Amino acid sequence: MAVAENREKNVMFDTQKRVKLVELATRDIDNVRVDSFDSLLVSYAKKNSVNIIIRGLRAVSDFEYELQMGYANSSLDSSIDTVYFMPSLERAFVSSSVVRSILKYNGDVKHLVPKEIWEYLNVCDN
Fold first, then answer.
1. Residue 81 phi, psi dihedral angles, 5° rounding
2. Selection from 62, 68, 52, 70 nearest residue 87 by Cα
3. Do 4 and 43 touch, CB atoms closer than 8 A?
């Protein structure tokens, strides 16, 4: 899994902390390696011999954006394919923005994030 350093997004945690959170959330999944990058995704993929990119789609707005990104990535390197996964209906509304908004007002996100992430956020609050 690759965590992008995106200066255009309003992130809650720096890249190192986001990598740690992904590592915590995936620690029980075999063969998962977490890395970060500060370049074009296609450049990162080439450098790491990746030929399939997996992205998530929650809503129609995600689809429109991801379709554009997929086409752009394909124009840069046609040997890299993008596969899209959709969440279950009960999780389709969950995004980092939603979680941040709830946390901002001290709301409970325990049911929205992996247990390991919630425990990390809970420790950070204390």
1. -100, 150
2. 62
3. no
